[in-house]
Design goal:
This protein is α+β, with helices and mostly antiparallel strands. It has 3 helices and 4 strands; from the N terminus they run αααββββ. Strand 1 and strand 2 form a beta hairpin.
Length: 188
């Protein structure tokens, strides 16, 4: 009969040499990492898909507004906000801000002609865009551009560290069919 202490001392060596059940042990170690990697890839793909959808919707809204030759009104802006929500299918409320910005070449100053919003965003004022020289293009004197800003929240399906993100888009476009785009109440 062997000494019990001798069996305890020899156990690590015998355990190391045995090969039964090695695949099961490896699977128990690796499967959680494989499962987490799959969930992470799914979440990252979904995040990029959501960012792309929001950006395409913002460009669509900007292009739609740039093709308007008639003055815009509240009903039109409500419709564009609904179109944005239809294109993006958000889980939470979205925001939309449409502004028309003019450029004065001699003073190199941008000014807001009009700005209207839907959702949580506030309308722009000229003082809000004083530091936007790097965001807006240099334009001919007294030219206008349409600035469309959208905002939506994004939550991942699985908590892999991305958390809740705001998707913000900033798109500017020149009016296509008219030199100036006006709002119904302040049309020249």
């Amino acid at each position: 009969m062997q000494n019990p202490a001798h069996k305890i001392i020899q156990f690590p060596g015998r355990f190391r040499r045995r090969e039964e059940g090695a695949v099961a042990v490896e699977a128990i170690i690796i499967l959680p990492m494989v499962f987490w990697s799959y969930l992470a890839m799914f979440s990252f793909f979904d995040a990029f898909r959501e960012y792309t959808n929001n950006q395409k919707a913002a460009y669509t809204i900007s292009d739609l507004i740039s093709r308007q030759a008639t003055p815009l009104d509240n009903n039109f802006l409500d419709g564009t906000h609904q179109l944005f929500d239809t294109l993006t299918r958000p889980a939470e409320a979205t925001s939309l801000r449409v502004s028309v910005v003019s450029y004065d070449l001699p003073t190199e100053i941008y000014s807001v002609i009009w700005s209207h919003t839907r959702g949580a965003m506030e309308p722009l004022e000229t003082t809000d865009i004083t530091g936007w020289a790097d965001r807006l293009p240099v334009m001919p004197d007294d030219d206008q551009i349409i600035v469309v800003e959208t905002q939506a929240n994004f939550n991942t399906f699985f908590n892999i560290g991305l958390g809740t993100r705001d998707i913000n888009n900033f798109v500017f476009t020149r009016p296509r069919y008219a030199s100036k785009l006006c709002w119904q109440e302040i049309c020249d």
